[in-house]
Write a structure and sequence with these properties.
The longest helix has 21 residues, at about 65-85. The chain is globular and about 50 Å long. It has one domain (about 5-355): ADP-ribosylglycohydrolase fold. The chain has helices at about 10-30, 35-45, 65-85, 90-105, 135-140, 165-170, 175-190, 195-210, 215-230, 235-250, 255-265, 270-280, 295-305, 310-325, 335-340, 340-355. About 60% of the residues lie in helices and about 0% in strands. The chain is an all-alpha fold. It starts with 10 loop residues before the first helix and ends with a helix.
Length: about 350
């Protein structure tokens, strides 16, 4: 499934769509993140949680969206320096951004860490609230050391805290696929040391990049699965989970037990990526069928969040993917109206658009 180039979404629409889509999926999944699949069905009936209309009260997003926006901020700062003619260490800018997020969570990186200067993002109260922050991200940043790909911190950490924040790398235009992968994997090393966590982040960012570049969902998915399999010293669980996601997506939508057996519960980075990719592909319109982006978005997120694993991260990644592919057209207006702090998300999306295109 692909777009006619004449009607393809603009880069601006894809950036806004991916960041808002990720926040929508995160918020939907966060509402059931502590529930098993059986508990979700017990709350919402046999079909499970279908959308924001099923929820009572505010639809809050989690640390997944907070850290995604801080990734945007780190990239924006590096690009601001570059646009002014001054070279900047991108990973250092990202580390400083993540340290500022760490401080919003009431955590301390210790005396050896620098004290970053505040930026616009830090003044938004919604990003200062503690929303079950990822333990590996907290632990990695709290070392006060800047991890690198050669010397990552938190050596055994393989959780989904890397992939959940890595869509923005794929939204930066005019850079090569290899550069996208490296930026993302290097940034993952700031908090996670396990190869699967770092490689999964790079592959997810590469998937977003390929979609923004105009590839179809299936071509992009197959392409990154092949790329993962060809990585030197690849963590074998990453290509295995991606291949399983592609195989499973060829069947009817799987139940939670079958999905968990094939892909895991989304607690690790490669599992989260596989679950989200499966949800997007399994619900995609057949080749040649009428395409309703909003319907696809709803159905994919329902699969992602009702499986009873790490629902917030699976929903967030699925939303990032479809927003990057369709642009803002896929985002249900009722859901956007219920989303927490959309102005903050649009504000960060606008900053990324401005430094990469000069628009806005």
């Amino acid at each position: 499934m692909s777009f006619d180039p004449a009607s393809a979404p603009t880069l601006t629409s894809r950036i806004h769509g991916s960041l808002l889509g990720g926040a929508l999926g995160d918020a939907l999944g966060y509402s059931v993140a502590s529930d098993s699949a059986a508990e979700i069905r017990g709350r919402f009936g046999a079909r499970g949680l279908a959308g924001f209309e099923d929820l009572q009260g505010p639809c809050k997003f989690s640390d997944d969206t907070q850290l995604t926006l801080y990734t945007v901020d780190g990239l924006v700062e590096a690009l601001e320096w570059a646009n002014s003619g001054v070279g900047a260490d991108v990973n250092a800018c990202l580390w400083l951004a993540y340290l500022r997020w760490l401080a919003t969570q009431g955590e301390d990186a210790g005396p050896s860490a620098p004290a970053p200067q505040p930026r616009w993002i830090d003044g938004n109260e919604v990003l200062r609230q503690r929303r079950h922050p990822d333990n590996d991200c907290i632990a990695g940043l709290a070392t006060g050391e800047m991890g690198t790909s050669m010397r990552p911190v938190n050596a055994g950490a393989r959780g989904a805290g890397t992939v959940m924040r890595s869509a923005p790398f794929g939204l930066v235009p005019h850079i090569t696929p290899d550069a996208v992968y490296k930026l993302s994997a290097d940034a993952a090393a700031l908090t996670h040391g396990h190869p699967a966590a770092r490689q999964s982040a790079g592959i997810f960012s590469l998937l977003i990049h390929r979609l923004v570049s105009g590839e179809s969902l299936m071509d992009a998915a197959a392409g990154v699965a092949a790329h993962a399999a060809s990585l030197p010293e690849v963590a074998p669980e990453l290509p295995e989970r991606l291949a399983a996601a592609l195989r499973l997506a060829d069947k009817a939508v799987a139940g939670p037990d079958e999905l968990h057996h094939a892909l895991g519960q989304g607690r690790t980075a490669e599992e989260a990526l596989a679950v989200a990719l499966y949800a997007v592909l399994a619900t995609a319109p057949a080749e040649g069928a009428d395409m309703d982006p909003a319907r696809h978005f709803r159905e994919a997120l329902a699969v992602a969040v009702n499986q009873g694993g790490a629902s917030d991260t699976a929903g967030s990644l699925a939303g990032n993917i479809l927003g990057a592919f369709y642009g803002e057209d896929c985002l249900p207006s009722q859901w956007l109206a219920a989303l927490e702090a959309p102005d903050v998300i649009r504000g960060m999306a606008g900053q990324l658009v401005k430094v990469t295109t000069g628009e806005g």
